[in-house]
Amino acid sequence: MHELAHENIWYDRSRCEDAELEYQHYLVHQHQQPHCGASKGDVQACPSAKCSSSNTGCVGSSDSPLTTRLAHLESENKQLRLMTSDLESVIKRLESRVSTLEKSASGHTGAAVCPDKSKVTSPAVQQNGVVSAKDADEDDFELFGDDNEEDDAEAERLKQERVKAYEDKKAKKPVLIAKSNIILDVKPLDDETDMVELEKCVRSIEMDGLLWGSSKLVPLAYTIKKLQISCVVEDDKVSVDDLEEKITAFEDYVQSIDIAAFNKI
Fold first, then answer.
1. 3-state secondary structure of 61
2. How far, in Å, CA of 174 to CA of 164, rounded?
3. 179-264 sits in which CATH class?
4. In sequence order, what are the residues at sequence separation of 6 or more whose Cβ sits closer than 8 angstroms to the Cβ of residue 245?
5. Which residues are CB-neighbours of 176 under 8 A, at least 6 positions away?
6. Is residue 69 a contact partner of residue 39, using CB atoms and an 8 Å limit?
């Protein structure tokens, strides 16, 4: 009890408080009843019920629950002290290791931040041992600016060559001309019209993009025949209305004109 009273930390407070309470009960009963006078280890000779081994036992008994409990608490206390001592030593070793690592890390950082000025060949300005990113970018631009300009000039030249080659190829490619094949039915003025002269008059019409083809006489009514003549025209150059107007201009031979067929070529 005296050894436990000087301890600053109790790791099993509830058990110690129970032991203290039991000891106080024992003291109260000792004041209220006289000592039984039983010898050490003679539990049955004690006439008092308070001296029975079922509760607190006699004062001099070494097998009492209180003595056993106190011995157990002392053993646990010693074990806890040993564990605490081991933990303290482990913590100290960890703190020492962390301190060593922090010192080594700070040494590496300082070496990286403060480079050897004698090895710096760039004209960029250094500030607090660190090269300014803006100055470094300007130096790179100055160093490689000529190469970029040459690359741009070369790319522009290649582009111009490709455009010229494409235009030349396009110019050599034949242009598709839209043409039409037209079959005309030319009706004579009367049954006495000379069909040979009528055909000559029609073929005498010349226009840019007009090419006359074959012709034949086709019976129209009774003994009257009509001239059926084919021609090929370029759509952009020859208008069908203009061609009909020129043919009907021969009033002495032509009565009317019809388009028998019109096909795109």
1. coil
2. 18
3. alpha beta
4. none
5. none
6. no
